[in-house]
Amino acid sequence: MSNILETKPIEACQLETEKVSRFRDQLPEKIEKIVANCYDKTCHNHIDYDPLPSRESVIRIIEKMREILFPGYFSEERVDPANLKYSIGQSVSLVYDMLSVQITDSIRYECLRYNKECSQCSDQGHQFTLYLLDGIPEIRRQLSTDVEATYTGDPAARSYDEIIFSYPGVFATAVYRVANRLFELGVPLLPRMMTEYAHSITGIDIHPGAEIGDGFVIDHGTGVVIGETTIIGNNVRIYQGVTIGALSLPKEAGEKFRGKKRHPTIEDNVIVYSGATILGGDTVIGARSVIGGNVWLTKSIPPDTRVLIEEPRLVYK
What we know:
CATH superfamily of the largest domain: serine acetyltransferase, domain 1
Helix content: 40-55%
Oligomer: single chain
Structural class: alpha/beta
Largest sheet: 5 strands, parallel
CATH topology of the largest domain: serine acetyltransferase, domain 1
CATH architecture of the largest domain: Orthogonal Bundle
Order of helices and strands: HHHHHHHHHEEEEEEEHEEEEEEE
Low-confidence stretches: none
CATH class of the largest domain: Mainly Alpha
């Protein structure tokens, strides 16, 4: 049988190798330029002996936290009454080891960057991790109200299992509830890294500084934005494309408004339909109100109010 693969003469292969070598010989010069540019103070880089938090570790922590928050749903092995203690113990131990390191790195980085006094970052890393783990039962209680409210209000949901496995709103809310605990402790970088990972997966952007009550539902969810100083009460349901944000600020307003109330307050039992935009730190949406789709709202409304856009006139051609 003849060889159906065409072969090049040895000379041709040698010429090709020499050509590639000539290209690669230019790499040292390029590398020198890139390395020199790394020391340009106008460029953003982190060239130091103290590590930043690791995004890969953050993702791994979130995965293990899901195993703890929803036992039996996201574990690689089957979880039953015989091995529950072992399974939870393994996950908790791994989270403790990984999270304490990431919290330590986050605090140390901020201390060194801003020349702060020593904050015993290693001790805080362990203490804050234990505080978070101690709060797991309360986080699970809150998540159970979120799942139940999602099921109660969604005829398409066949079971709690379906919601836990597949609803992006529940995933984003679970990550938020964990990150919020760390944010309240003052842990830098890490809480935002957690919620931004959930954002990248779900399209739901919840700042870890927001305050969100029980029975919270994000239906569908894509394009939802909830700002840092937002306060949301109990049994609130919002739909896709909703923005709960800040009013436009001057260009140099970062330091002036940082830490101040810039986002709305949504009271209990409010529904906000898709595409609605609610802005401003003084804006309060009264309890049991309904905000219709595509509404733009920058002022407060009293309880039991319906805000709707007048039905547009359709033109058929």
